[in-house]
Amino acid sequence: MQRVIYILFLGLLSTSISAQQYKKHVLTKNKLAIDLSEGILNIIPLNEKSIRVQYQIGNVKEAQEFVLINTPNVPGFSLKETANSLKLSTKGITVAFDKKTAVLQYSDKSGKVFLSEKANSRLMKPSTIMGEACFVAEQGFESPQDEYLFGLGQFQDGFYNLKNTTRKLIQVNTQIAIPFVVSNKGYGLLWHQYGLTYFNPTNQTINLVKNTVNEGEKREVEVTTTSGTQRVSQQQSVYSGSFSVAKDGEYSLMLDLGDMDSRHLVLIDGIDVINQSNLWLPPAVSKLVSLKAGEHTVKVVCKSSNTPALSLKLSNNETVFNSPNAKSLDYVVFAGNDTDEIIANYRNLTGNVPMLPKWAFGFWQCRERYTSGEHLVSTIKEFRKRNLPVDVIVQDWQYWGKYGWGVPKFDETHYPEPEKFIKEIHDLNAHFSVSVWENLNKESEIGKEYVSKNLFIPNSPWIDIYNPETQKTHWNALNKNLFTLGVDSWWMDATEPENDALRGKQIFFGLGDFYRLTYPLFVSKAVYEGQRNTNPEKRVTILTRSAFLGQQRYATINWSGDIGWNWDTYKRQIVAGLNYNLTGMPYWTTDIGGFFRPGSGQYKDEKYHEILTRWFQWAVFNPIFRMHGYQTETEPWKYGEKVENNMRSMMNLRYQLLPYIYSEAWQISKNNSTLMRPLIMDFNQDTTAVSQAYQYMFGKAFLIAPVTEANVTEWDVYLPKQNAWFDFWTGKRFEGGQTIATAAPLDKIPVFVKEGSIVPMGNVIQSTQAKQDELEIRVYTGKDATFTMYNDEGDNYNYEKGKYSEIPIIWNEKNQTLTLANQIGNYKDQTTTYTMTIKWISGNENDSVVKTIKYTGKKVVVKK
User: Fold this and answer.
1) How far apart are CA 350 and CA 62, in angstroms?
2) Is there a single domain that holds both residue 167 and residue 109?
3) Considering only Cβ atoms within 10 Å of each terminal Cβ, which end of the chain, N or C, has fewer?
C-alpha cells in the first residue's frame, strides 16, 4: 500500500514539474514564445523598459484588451541562448529564462537584477466558474527583506507598505482595486487580470463556530443604499475558534465576511487585532500580527447576515498574485530609474492623462444634499458674500424625484427650468456638477428605452455599460437631460458597480465574474467619449467612486467613498490616497470631515471641529479640494466663526497656489508626473523617507505633514536627506536627514519647501474665473532651481493644438540670478503683463530680499 501511495505521489509531482519543463522556443519579430510541457510562455517587449509575460494553456485566451490600448512600435531586442538559459534584451531591460527551473529574472542595463519570479510558483490550475472553464492563475515573486511595495489602489486597512500583506481585490464602496504595484527596487508590476484577484493569498484556514444569533448591540440607522435612504438593522453575531501555528513569526491575517459590513472586529487571545466600525466597510480586511508558536483562540464579530472566513499566512518574503477566474496568466513588468519613469511607461501604454479644467483645482462645495435649484444658487451667493472662494457646487442624488430612482432628469417640482438656475450658478462664476447612477428605474420613461434595447444586465438593476449601444444610449440620456442644460461635470456614483454586483451575471462580453473589476472603466469611457464627441470644446471632468487600470485616460477624479469621520479613519485616508496615486491615477480626494458624521451636534462640537479643521488643512494639499458629508450642512459658516475663519485662510492659500498647482497639473499631462507624491518618488535612496506613511510631496517643492492626532500644538516631521528644508510659514531653514518638532497650532498644517525650489503664488481670488496677474515668485535658495509656469484657456482642448504658454523660470545659485525666460507659446486672451514680486528665501531672519518687476513675455534677469 505504501508503495502505491509513493508511486502516486511521484506521478503527481512529475505532472506538476513537467508543466514547467522547457521543450523549445520560437523567436518572432515581436516576442519570444517558449514551449513548455503544458503551455506556451510568451515574453513580449512592449517598449524598451516594459515586458509583458503571458502563459497560456491550449487556445484559451482573454479576447478583450481593456488596458494596454497603446501599441507603440516593438522595440529592438536581441536573444542570447546558452545551454541553461535564454536571455531577451532590449536597451533598458533583460529577461532571463532558466531552462531548468522555468524561472524568469529581470535585470537593468547594468546587469543588476531587480525582480525575480519565485521557483515553482507559476500556476495554471484548471477550474470552472458557473459551468464555464477557466484557470486559477498564480505567480509568485521574490521579495527581498528590505523591499517596500506600494499601490493596489485605495484600501481602508491602513497599510502603507504592502509587503507581506494580504488583500482581496474587488470593487466596493470605499475600496478601489487596481492590480498594480511599484517597488523601491526599481520596478512596477501590473497583474493583467479583470476578475477577482488575491494579493499574497493566505494558506491556513481557521475554523469558526457561530456562538449565538444576534448577540450584541441592536440598533437601526439610516444609510445610503442603491434604493435611497433606508433603515438597516445592525444586528451582530459572534464567532469563535482556535488555531495553532508551528513557529514564531509575523503572519498576515485575513478576515473575509463575503459582503459589506459595518464592523471589522477580530480578537486573538482576547486582544483586538482588527477593530473598525463604519456604516459601510469592505467585505475583506487584513492585518499583520506577531504570533508565538502554539495554540491561539480567536473571536470574530460581524453582521448576522454575513458568514466570516478567517485565514492566515506566515510572512515569507514573497509577493504573490492569484486570480481564481482567469483565462491565462498575464502580467507586465515596468523598469525605471525612478517611480516617475515607471508610471510614465505604464501611462504611455494604458493612456495618458488629459488636462482637467482650471476650475477643477478650486474648491468643490458638496453635501448630502441640496434640495432645489434655489438652494444651490443661494449657497453660492452666500460663499461670495462671505468671501469664501469656491469654483464648484455639486448636486448629490434625489434630484430626479418623481421620475424615479437614478433617472438623470431634474424633477421640476424643486428644480424648475434647470437651465436657468445653472446659468445663475455660472453667472456667479461657479460650475455645476451632478450625481449620476447606472441603476436607473426600469419603469421610468428614460429607463424604458434601455429595457427595450436589452441594455440592462439580466436579473440586475445595473445597465450593461460594456455594450457599445448602452454607452451610446446612456450618454444620449445624460446629454439630453443634463449636459445641454449647462452641467459642467459628472459625479458618477457607485461605479463599482455597488457591492461587487457582477458576480454570477452575464454581461456583453460574457460571464461577469471574469470582468468584475472593470465596470468603472467603461462608465468613465462612456461619459468621456460621449462628451468629447458632443462638445470637443469643453473639458471632461468625472468624479467617480471606483476605478480600474488605465482609467486615468478618461479625465477621472476618484474619492474615497462613504467613510467615517474619526481620527483613525482620517489617517487611513492619507495612506489610501498615497497608494492610489502610485497606481498612475493622479487625481484623488476625500469627503473632508468624513461622509458619516456625528449628527446634529457636529456644528457646536469643538472636538469634531478640530478634526474637521485638520482634515480641511490636509485637503488643501490634495489634488482635488472637496467638502462633503451625509445629511450634513457642510458650508463653513455652519460651524461657527472660528472654523469659518480657519477654513477661509486655507481656501485663500489654495487659490494663491493655483499657478503652482495648475503648472504641476500640466506636468502630469505633458511628462506623466504625479501631484500627490509619496516620498518613494523623490527620495527612494532615503529609507527613512520611503517608510513615512503620513508625509508626502505636493508637486516637486512642498513637503506635507498633516496633523493626525487631537490636542496637538507641536508635530514631528521627518525632513529627507540631501536637501535643506524651509518652513513654509516662517521661512526658517533646516538641514535634511532629521526629525524635527515643528509648531502646529490649530490654524496651521506643517508644510516645508525643499531648497532649490521656485513657487509661484497668485493674488487671492474668489474663483478661477478671476485673473491672477499679480504673482509672488518665491525662490527657496541653496541649490539651482527651475520651474515652468503654465497657462492656457482653462476649459477647452485647444492646449492639445498648442494653444498654451510656458514661462521657464531659472534660479542660478552660484550667480544669484533669477531668469524669467521668453514666454513659449500663446493662447487666446492670455495675460500680457504680470506684476511679479520676487522673494528670495534663504532661511535667516530678516534676510529675505524682495524685488518687483513687470513681465511681458520677454526675458528678464533679476539679480538678488
Assistant:
1) 17
2) yes
3) N
Tell me which residue has cell 449565538: 212
Same domain as 229, residue 311? yes
Which pLDDT band holds residue 60 (cuts at 50, 70, 90)?
Answer: confident
How confident is the model at residue 324, as a pLDDT? 98
Please check whether residue 660 is in contact with residue 760, taking contact to mean a CB–CB distance below 8 angstroms. yes
Residues 133 and 162 in one domain: yes
Q: How far apart are CA 796 and CA 698, in angstroms?
A: 25
Query: Do residues 301 and 158 share a domain?
Result: no
Vertex 211 angle, CA 282 and 170, to 5°: 15
> Could you give the CA distance from residue 325 to residue 278 in angstroms, rounded to a whole number?
31
Helix (H/G/I), strand (E/B), else coil: 651: helix
pLDDT at 373 over 80: yes
For residue 8, the model assigns a pLDDT of 29
pLDDT of 779 higher than 80: yes
**Do 289 and 331 share a structural domain?**
no
Nearest to 389 by CA among 151, 565, 647: 647
Q: What is the pLDDT of residue 219?
A: 53
Instruction: Please write the tens of the pLDDT for every residue from 586-628.
Output: 999 999 999 999 999 999 999 999 999 999 999 999 999 999 9
Please tell me the distance from the alpha carbon of residue 741 to that of residue 749, in angstroms, as a whole number: 13
Contacts of 443 (CB under 8 A, 6+ apart): 404
Mean pLDDT of 786-796: 98
Distance separating the N- and C-terminal Cα atoms of the chain: 91
Does residue 572 have a cis bond before it (omega within 30 degrees)?
A: no
Is the residue at 216 inside a domain?
yes
- In order of 225, 265, 306, the CA distances from 201 in angstroms are 31, 20, 21
CB 55 within 8 A of CB 73: no
- The answer to whether residue 612 sits within a structural domain is no
Amino acid identity of residue 423, one-letter, is: K
CA angle (251, 252, 253) in 5-degree steps: 110
Residue with cell 471641529: 609
Choice between 532 and 18, residue whose per-residue pLDDT is larger: 532
Residue 846's pLDDT is: 62
Per the listing, cell 459582503 goes with 259
Q: Quick one: which of 473, 453, 493 has its CA closest to 226?
A: 493
Q: What's the rounded mean pLDDT across residues 117-144? A: 97
Residue 171 maps to a domain: yes
Q: Report which of 523, 520, 590 is spatially closest to residue 562, judged by C-alpha positions.
A: 590
Residues with Cβ within 8 Å of residue 4, at least 6 apart in sequence: none
- Label the pairing between strands 834-841 and 774-780: parallel
| CA–CA distance, 355 with 539 (Å, rounded to integer) | 8
Q: Verify that 242 and 277 share a domain, yes or no.
A: yes
Does some domain include residue 255? yes
Domain span including residue 242 = 204-317
Give the whole-angstrom CA distance, residue 53 versus residue 43: 5
Mean pLDDT of 468-495: 98
Q: What is the CATH number of the domain that holds 60?
A: 2.60.40.1760
**Running DSSP on this structure, what letter comes out for residue 519?**
H
- Whether the CB-CB separation of 661 and 655 falls below 8 Å is answered with no
One domain for residues 330 and 291:
no
Q: Does residue 395 surpass a pLDDT of 50?
A: yes
Q: 250-264, 290-304, 834-848: which range is least confident on average? A: 834-848
The domain boundary, picked from 274, 300, 317, lies at 317
How many CB atoms lie under 10 A from the CB of residue 441? 16
CB of 380 closer than 8 Å to CB of 432: no
pLDDT score of 72: 84
pLDDT value of residue 848: 74
* Inter-residue contact 38 to 329 (CB < 8 Å): no
Q: Are 181 and 298 found together in one domain? A: no
- Count structural domains, the chain: 2
Task: Report how far residue 748's alpha carbon sits from residue 285's, in angstroms, rounded to the nearest whole number.
Answer: 34
Strand bridging mode 167-169 / 197-199: antiparallel
Residue 669 has pLDDT above 90, yes or no: yes
Instruction: Using alpha carbons, select from 493, 497, 490 the residue that is nearest to residue 457.
Output: 497
